Amino acid sequence: MAEHENYTSYLAEEYVIQEEPFYLPVGDEIELFEVAYSQNLPVLLKGPTGTGKTRFVEYMSYRLGRPLTKLTPNKDGSAQEEQKSIPLMTIACHEDLTASDLVGRYLLEGDETRWVDGPLARAVKAGAICYLDEIVEARKDTTVLIHPLTDHRRILPIDKRGEVLEAHDGFQLVVSYNPGYQSALKDLKHSTRQRFMALELTHPPADLEARIVQHESGVSEEMSVALAKLGEKARNLKDHGLQEGVGTRLLIYAGKLIARGIAPRRACQVAVTWALTDDQQVQRSVDEVVNSIFE
Amino acid sequence: MAEHENYTSYLAEEYVIQEEPFYLPVGDEIELFEVAYSQNLPVLLKGPTGTGKTRFVEYMSYRLGRPLTKLTPNKDGSAQEEQKSIPLMTIACHEDLTASDLVGRYLLEGDETRWVDGPLARAVKAGAICYLDEIVEARKDTTVLIHPLTDHRRILPIDKRGEVLEAHDGFQLVVSYNPGYQSALKDLKHSTRQRFMALELTHPPADLEARIVQHESGVSEEMSVALAKLGEKARNLKDHGLQEGVGTRLLIYAGKLIARGIAPRRACQVAVTWALTDDQQVQRSVDEVVNSIFE
Amino acid sequence: MAEHENYTSYLAEEYVIQEEPFYLPVGDEIELFEVAYSQNLPVLLKGPTGTGKTRFVEYMSYRLGRPLTKLTPNKDGSAQEEQKSIPLMTIACHEDLTASDLVGRYLLEGDETRWVDGPLARAVKAGAICYLDEIVEARKDTTVLIHPLTDHRRILPIDKRGEVLEAHDGFQLVVSYNPGYQSALKDLKHSTRQRFMALELTHPPADLEARIVQHESGVSEEMSVALAKLGEKARNLKDHGLQEGVGTRLLIYAGKLIARGIAPRRACQVAVTWALTDDQQVQRSVDEVVNSIFE
Amino acid sequence: MAEHENYTSYLAEEYVIQEEPFYLPVGDEIELFEVAYSQNLPVLLKGPTGTGKTRFVEYMSYRLGRPLTKLTPNKDGSAQEEQKSIPLMTIACHEDLTASDLVGRYLLEGDETRWVDGPLARAVKAGAICYLDEIVEARKDTTVLIHPLTDHRRILPIDKRGEVLEAHDGFQLVVSYNPGYQSALKDLKHSTRQRFMALELTHPPADLEARIVQHESGVSEEMSVALAKLGEKARNLKDHGLQEGVGTRLLIYAGKLIARGIAPRRACQVAVTWALTDDQQVQRSVDEVVNSIFE
Amino acid sequence: MAEHENYTSYLAEEYVIQEEPFYLPVGDEIELFEVAYSQNLPVLLKGPTGTGKTRFVEYMSYRLGRPLTKLTPNKDGSAQEEQKSIPLMTIACHEDLTASDLVGRYLLEGDETRWVDGPLARAVKAGAICYLDEIVEARKDTTVLIHPLTDHRRILPIDKRGEVLEAHDGFQLVVSYNPGYQSALKDLKHSTRQRFMALELTHPPADLEARIVQHESGVSEEMSVALAKLGEKARNLKDHGLQEGVGTRLLIYAGKLIARGIAPRRACQVAVTWALTDDQQVQRSVDEVVNSIFE
Amino acid sequence: MAEHENYTSYLAEEYVIQEEPFYLPVGDEIELFEVAYSQNLPVLLKGPTGTGKTRFVEYMSYRLGRPLTKLTPNKDGSAQEEQKSIPLMTIACHEDLTASDLVGRYLLEGDETRWVDGPLARAVKAGAICYLDEIVEARKDTTVLIHPLTDHRRILPIDKRGEVLEAHDGFQLVVSYNPGYQSALKDLKHSTRQRFMALELTHPPADLEARIVQHESGVSEEMSVALAKLGEKARNLKDHGLQEGVGTRLLIYAGKLIARGIAPRRACQVAVTWALTDDQQVQRSVDEVVNSIFE
């Protein structure tokens, strides 16, 4: 196993997006995010699976890393002298994520207990963008933890150390959630949601989606247009029992299979139809859409 | 990451509000709180999201820090010789907050276990105002813990140390809860609630709210009046499915976006409409209100 | 923070009531408690919130501290030579209170684990009165723990030490519960409740309550009579949706506010009406009672 | 607190009943228990609260401590040369009792972890009678733990040590449960219950109960007969909403109060009526019975 | 307590059945088990309480310990040279049994953490027969743990050590469950159950059962025939509310009591009727059967 | 116990399939998997119990270990120079599998806490194929953990170390689940499932299955054809209450018993009928199928 040590690891607060992520804006979301960042407004991203919420945050983290004084007046980012990097901390929320997982904990080490900051404390100190993905999945203690960070106080109390941490100027809190999953049990409480400016993200329009699929999968323009058309049509199958529309990612998967020689219909079956649903009737509906496009 | 250590932290019991918080009283709440403080009566703040409960406690903590002998007769606080500071400990309650989180715990350190006071024990010792935000969210052990602190005993038993702590003279317990969330499962038991004087807080009247929005967001007086009007009208949409009225904070967010050049309708959409609700029909109702104001 | 160390703490078993608590007996409860104490009968106090269960136990703990030989024949306690103190351990039960919280646990300390007695073990050893407040809230392991202490054995098995502790002569177990909260889930099992002599406590009659309010709040006799009348009338509002009657404590709060210059109607609103209920209709009923008294 | 260290403690396996407990047999339960003990048959005691299950086990533990060869032929125990003591380990089961609580656990001590036997392992090694009171309350891991101890194997596997313990000859397992509490959730599984010989215990007949009450409370014979009559009559109130009959213990409590000068009706009210039930209507029924006896 | 150290303990993997267990085969179960063992097929034993599943596994463990080359051709086991022992690890499953309980865990010991194998890892290494009794009671992590041991891989991954253990040739997994307890919540998943050859065990026929009862209890042949008849008849009472038939063990208990002089009817009442059920009507039905046999 | 140390263990990341697993492809699943591997597409295997999901992953792990440059153009794998091994990490998911179980944890060792990688971190570093079997059984924190590994980021954040791990080139994530078990509670969220290319696996056709049974059990071709026929027919009994079809494994078990001399009908009864179901009526249906084949 010679290649066993052949991997890369970073300290979380040094994880800075180095290359410009491929992102095609749908509307004014970039401008709104920039103003929110400059005004310390926390941002809530709403939208279904596969609308590029993670990609958007990565793009903004890269983009905002450029000189801040140029941000609002000059949006094309041409003046690139003295690049300032903004780390991005992404935390996928789930119902077992504890407050300690976010804030930090004591570890026993030799003769002393050593405090280890959690990702949120690291982000608060480093002035990072902290992205809590699918915030409604988090336990209540996690949700409540971010309250003092999202009002005029901008502090993070670390109860176990009896300490209060003031957020670094560059710190920005971004959370996301999928209103489609919204339920009585898993809803954002108003005392939490009224702390965020909200952006609703949607699937990109067909022409944009075709450009994304082509860029990411390497298929021809014609094929990418066909796949984007498939995406659009499949999203109209909601009344046929398809719980959630197909995301751009699955179209890219299909493209990648096609680019490696798999027949388009078969590629769409394994990357779209079967990936989307287990229901045989719904599968037939999706396959019909596939067949109507790749005759 | 040169700026990484560029943050500020305090011991929790040294967190004293240094600048006078901007607070505009709605009624006699300041006078009532001052009497309660001088008489050692615990205070329960009731009210919906965004009525400024946290801000009010911060203001009182700042205000009561001035010479106590002047408090009741002279409310303008002009005589500022020998400022006395009262720390404020704010604890956001949640269902995973344990009694140990509040009282303290033993930590292993080298050859000895060291006791670390929790925020409540720190507040009891330091004579701080201890604010338990959203008390009904707390676990039962937390709720019960405050009983001996809220009657004539004013003690905090620390079972793990076999110790009883008498509260410092200046110690004051303040709790808040939102009756709108009240349910069979999450209600204050009578044995708890009959230990507090209760203040019901409401959204500020439109003229007051306009002054707050103007002060906090930097928009013009005209714009702040329009935003306060939006707040008032949106709160009347309860019958249209809007679970909870818009808080002042979201109006300030809209103001901040407008002040940075975002068009008022768009600013209100992302800061008010989308932030308030995911329901498309309710969103349309709110947007109509927005459009009727920003024609 | 010069005054930070300016607090008092006791070892729990040294917490002895030093001054005679103000207690006005309603019936023969003092005599019955004294016999129970002398006969080693555990006592169950039943009654709604605010009927002074905690105060009664504190009073008995103080009273029984006087020479035991004089107790039954001579109830005025005039012969005070050689005062014997009986510590009081009060434990507020809740659903997260574990058996270890009561009995004790091992703590790691340097090279050894040190055993730390819990409050029940301390009480058993010190011959204290141990008061388990709201016993039905406790977890089953806690409830079961007291069984061998409440029959002829009077022992406390400490399983983690493989040890059996015999109770000190002066040890007395007192528990309380509020039958109003009684439910299928939170009921005392017969195997537990048939171990106690039971005293049912009620709200004091109006004349007694007026004397208590006057003594504790410092209002005039006339005002205290009015407040006691308010208490009596408000308790008759049960059919109007008032889940539980107002306790004496809230009347004292109202008195304290009035004594500091707050208008009686406003004082009763914040200390009684709002403290009792969030229901606007019920609040109106209570306010009507207030207005009928303080016209 | 000079008397603070003035208590007695034993190692659990040295807890031997020293004085003959006062026990009046109702039928052939002593003989059956003796045969079960000599044949290594585990015993299940069934019966409602207050029928003396604990007392019976204590009596048998004392009785069986006498020379075993004399046990069956000669029941009066006159030949007392060479007393052999059998320790009794009583464990009150509850839903939080873990297998480790019974079997043992490792404790960290200085440079080594030390194993500490739990009460069941101690009983298995010491040849004690191990009495698991209210076995149905125990968690499933506890119940399953006793299986290999109750068949021909008579072993206790200690998984954490990778060890198997063979039971000492004198070891006997006794469990109890109250069929009245039996429910779908809390029932003995057949794989458990078919491991025990079962004895059903009932409240003693009136003449026997009178003798017990007289012996334990010190009241006159006449009074004890009256109290036994109360017990008998109160047990017939089941159709009047009295969930469970009054146990002998409460009658003894009433006797003790009467013996110290409390009036019989008042003594029965606090020791029987109020102790039995919170339901005012049922209380009236019990009080009527009391009044009919103590006219 | 001189006899306190007077007990025997084994390392679990040295627990080998030394004496031939008394086992009377009902059908070809011995042959099927032998083939399964030689072919590494895991075995599932199904059957109600008291059909001797544990005894059968013990017998097979003893029997298979004889020279393996002789196993299938020659079933009488006459050639006993060079006895090879196969340890038996029995684990009673319950809902709190964790994967660590089976696989092992780290223990802190002085300056190092020491790994301690759990019973399953010990069995895998020692080539033991590992018997998981009542497998459906186990938590899901336990059930899943045995998957790689029951297919062609025959490995046990020890995640906490990052290690994979290959099973010793002689290792055999046997599980049991009682289909009568089968419920939606506690059922064997198909992905688990389709890994076992299944043997359904039933109560032995009357003549066989009589021989077992006689051998184990020491009663006369006539009495044992009567008891076996009781067993057969009681099993036909299922329609009379008897949830589960009487197992052979209870008949043996009755026999042991009779052999020590207890009257047959009384012996059957405490060992069969009361042990089987708490329902008085069902008890009457069983007693009738008893009386019809022991007139 | 001389043979006690006679077992084999590997470090998990050195567990490489050494011999070519016997795998007969049903369709183009091998080609699709190879493309997915080369394109870093995560793979989801769907299908009922016993369709060979684990075997397929093992086969692909062995096959992909051969020189990667030859993979797609040349599928017969004839050119075997310079074998590259790809370890396989199989993790059986269950509801108690924590994120720490997968990622790693700190262990105390002497004077330092030592970090121990979990199986997922080991796979990420070693470039292994990581197979999460029955992913829907996993807790939410486990499911969410794999998100950043399954998009363009291919990173594994290790929160407890404040570290981000980039996946080795050869790392591939494969998950499986059984749509038949799909329920409201245990379903793959769309945000998870839209990260995988999906392959639906089915029971092999009869001729293929016969070849597998013959190869694995050693029965004659005729017998293996008969057993495959049994498999096919038994799968048609779904309408007769057979929840899930018989997997190939059970047919192999039957074959192994037959090859060792057990009569075919009896072999099928214990290996198929009883293994499949406890329902007597369904058992009769299966037995009828068995009898119609083995007349």
Tally of extended strands of chain A?
Answer: 10
Specify Rg of chain A, calculated over alpha carbons: 22 Å
C-alpha geometry of chain A: elongated
- What structural category arises from helix and sheet content of chain A? alpha/beta
Catalogue the unreliable spans of chain A.
67-75
Quaternary structure: homohexamer
- Name the chain pair whose interface involves the most residues: A-F, 61 and 59 residues
Give the averaged pLDDT of chain A, no decimals: 85
Number of helices of chain A: 11
Strand order of the largest sheet of chain A: 3-6-9-2-10
> Strand share of the residues of chain A?
15-25%
Helix-residue proportion of chain A: 25-40%
For the terminal residues of chain A, how far apart are their CA atoms? Answer: 48 Å
Largest sheet properties of chain A: 5 strands, parallel
- What is the H-and-E element order of chain A? EHEHEHEEHEHEEEHEHHHHH
